[in-house]
Amino acid sequence: MSQQRPPTSEVDNIINFVGRTTGLRAAFQENGRVEIKQSLDGKTFYFESEHVSEVLNRMDADGRPFIQINFKDTNKVLLTDNLVGFKPSETWGLDMSRIPKVVTTPDLHSVLDAIEDSLGSDQSESEVEILKKVYYSILTGAEKIGFDLPFERRCLERLMATKMRASA
């Protein structure tokens, strides 16, 4: 962290936590923007330091530390040793009890793989539609909290367009 920044205990807590993780890296920009990059998938989570309202130090069920960042707009994220966790967005027609309350960006790839498997099998179209809704729920949840995922946004449309051409 070579850039100068105003001291804030919340941002310091975040930067210090990330510095102790094995799979996250943080950078503080001069304009107050904080970037946290996940080594696992290379995705970067961005937020403005002045939007942080509270940082809570927590432990998971296995005794591993994580932090919860509460933002002034009521959004929340969890920082673990390797990933940024967030709430999936409510999606019309999707039973939210069918998906975890906290998801991560690698979940997008898992759901996309499930969609590809479903398209190549005898799965019903309703199953594919549910998986698409799960994908969009995770994607919009990620974008809402500060991930920029244009490739992932286009991915499903391309997959569906390919399937349509193949079945024509």
Word description of this protein:
Strands 4-5-6-7 form a 4-stranded antiparallel sheet, with helices on one face. Strands 1-2-3 form a 3-stranded antiparallel sheet, with helices on one face. A hairpin with a 4-residue loop joins strand 5 (65-71) and strand 6 (76-79). The chain is built from 4 helices and 7 strands. 23% of the residues are buried. It is elongated, with a radius of gyration of 18 Å. 38% of the residues lie in helices and 23% in strands. It has helices spanning 9-19, 106-119, 125-145, 150-167; strands at residues 24-28, 33-38, 44-48, 52-59, 65-71, 76-79, 84-86. It starts with 8 loop residues before the first helix and ends with a helix. The chain is α+β, with helices and mostly antiparallel strands.
Structure in a nutshell:
The chain is α+β, with helices and mostly antiparallel strands. The chain contains 4 helices and 7 strands, in the order αβββββββααα.
